[in-house]
Amino acid sequence: MKIEKKIVFLGILLLILIALFMFIGLNSRNFEYALSQRIPKIIAILLTGSSIAFSSTIFQTITNNRILTPSVLGLDSIYMFIQTFMVFVFGSSTLAKVGGSFNFVLSVGLMALFSVLLFKLLFKREGNNIFFLLLLGLVFGTFFQSLSSFMQVLIDPNEFMIVQNKMFASFNNINTNILGLALVGVMVALVFTYKHLKALDVLSLGRENAINLGVEYDKTVKTMLMVISILVSVSTALVGPITFLGLLVVNVTREFLKTYKHKYLIVGSMLVGSIALVGGQLMAERIMKFSTPISVIINFIGGVYFIYLLFKEGKN
């Protein structure tokens, strides 16, 4: 099957799942109310799935490693630290008063600021490679995670329940006011990445080969890292952290499409990411009756797939 046909197949599969998600259980009595709840939810799911898959595809290309996800940069830990810090200092009532839009803009802004500072450390001197950035991300991620845990054991148990809800991705309480902001962020990242698609194809050959073939390595990597940080910040601030989704969908896409061209890989991974989230949410709502969060299902499947990849890479 040609790549274009495979992408069309993924698109049709996604449309079928969206139709099932939207119309299962509808009748004349709940039609208007159910659609008003499901439409924002499906938009949030598509935005989140696309952002995570898009950012993970680029991240694996510039690190030249198929078992890494942008979560190693520590942005998930930064997000949890911001949420815990606000509840610890101001209380959950203040958090509710300022509104979800302010929380979203503040979280995305601080995560982007952290990324800029991290990248400045990386590109401050020549000779620092991308793995120096990953090491710094892991160190800072552990540091902020420890600070969050310290504050969580000190706050009131009722306040902790508010923080705990932020630890797991959820599409059940979407703030519709921030969907427009999230959509703008994703569209800007897509437009900005479009002119770098061919450079990404070359970057997948490795740093030395990319430089020999005329790619401005440091400039391109720095630009793509900023795109990744924006996409991860938007998806995390929108629904919460989903660790293994990127690892899962990008590797499935690479195995299915069997191409190195990022104009196909990015579109394909965004479709697979959306299919995984829409299908997972459909299963969580209709089959499991909300008994298990979708992030738990995805992290379990992703964790098993991660172990499989480790064994596979070890044999190679």
TrEMBL record:
Keywords: Cell membrane, Ion transport, Iron, Iron transport, Membrane, Transmembrane, Transmembrane helix, Transport. One of its GO terms (molecular function) is transmembrane transporter activity. It is a multi-pass membrane protein. It comes from the Bacteria. It is found in: Cell membrane. The chain crosses the membrane at residues 7-26, 38-59, 71-90, 102-123, 130-154, 174-194, 225-252, 264-283, 290-311. CDD domains: TM_ABC_iron-siderophores_like (cd06550). Its main location: membrane. GO terms for biological process: siderophore-iron import into cell. GO terms for cellular component: plasma membrane. Belongs to the binding-protein-dependent transport system permease family. FecCD subfamily. This is Iron chelate uptake ABC transporter family permease subunit. It comes from Irregularibacter muris. The lineage of its organism: Bacteria, Bacillati, Bacillota, Clostridia, Eubacteriales.
